[in-house]
Amino acid sequence: TWEALRPRSPPKQWSKLIWFSGAIPRHAFNMWVANLNRLPTKARLASWGLTVQKTCCLCNSFDEDRDHLFLSCAYSISIWNLIIARLDPNRRLILSWNELLSWIKRSSTSAATTLRKLVTQSAIYNIWRQRNSAVHLNGFATAQITFKTIDRDIRNTLTARRHRRKFNSLMSLWIR
Q: Is residue 110, in this structure, part of any structural domain at all?
């Protein structure tokens, strides 16, 4: 019955960047919603007719949409600079969502790709979390503290999966 009711379409090109073995479920779900551009950012809320101030609550400089919040906000840039310094020191900043997805895919080894997926999902999740803290609790952690949370997420994930063949070399890639 399920197969008859549900139309079958080919998987999206980005599906393996989000849904993969070893992903943290809440991070993967948040990344999925962000990728579809369905997170209730202030710009989206305003487009629905709600009366909200559209300014980003992390930098107070630009309208808060997905690309600004996760990639071009000063807060997010600080976090991405720390991530890129570890994973891809010769890389310049990522400026668009499509560029972020391309960066995740671009790698010489599957281990490095897996690590980029984990780190990106953790970064998106934790930036969104801090954004929600700023909106609902009137305060948020510094970019350095958020990066430490991302680092802890990655270390915990890699430690828990260290006996899996796919994950046994990832810790050395992350710590270097």
A: yes
CA distance 51 to 153: 35
Phi-psi region at 161: left, alpha or beta (left = phi > 0; alpha = psi -120 to 50):
alpha
Q: Using CA atoms, how far apart are residues 176 and 171, in angstroms rounded to an integer?
A: 8
Q: What is the pLDDT of residue 164?
A: 80
Is 10 part of a structural domain of the chain?
no
Q: Is the pLDDT of residue 47 over 90?
A: yes
pTM of the model: 0.92
Average pLDDT of span 94-101:
94
Question: Does residue 86 lie within any of the structural domains?
Answer: yes
What's the average model confidence in pLDDT over 32-50? 95
User: Is 76 within a domain?
Assistant: yes
Note down the domain range covering 164.
60-176
Which of 40, 75, 49 has the alpha carbon at shortest distance from 61?
75
Q: How many domains does the chain have?
A: 1
Average pLDDT over residues 93-122: 90
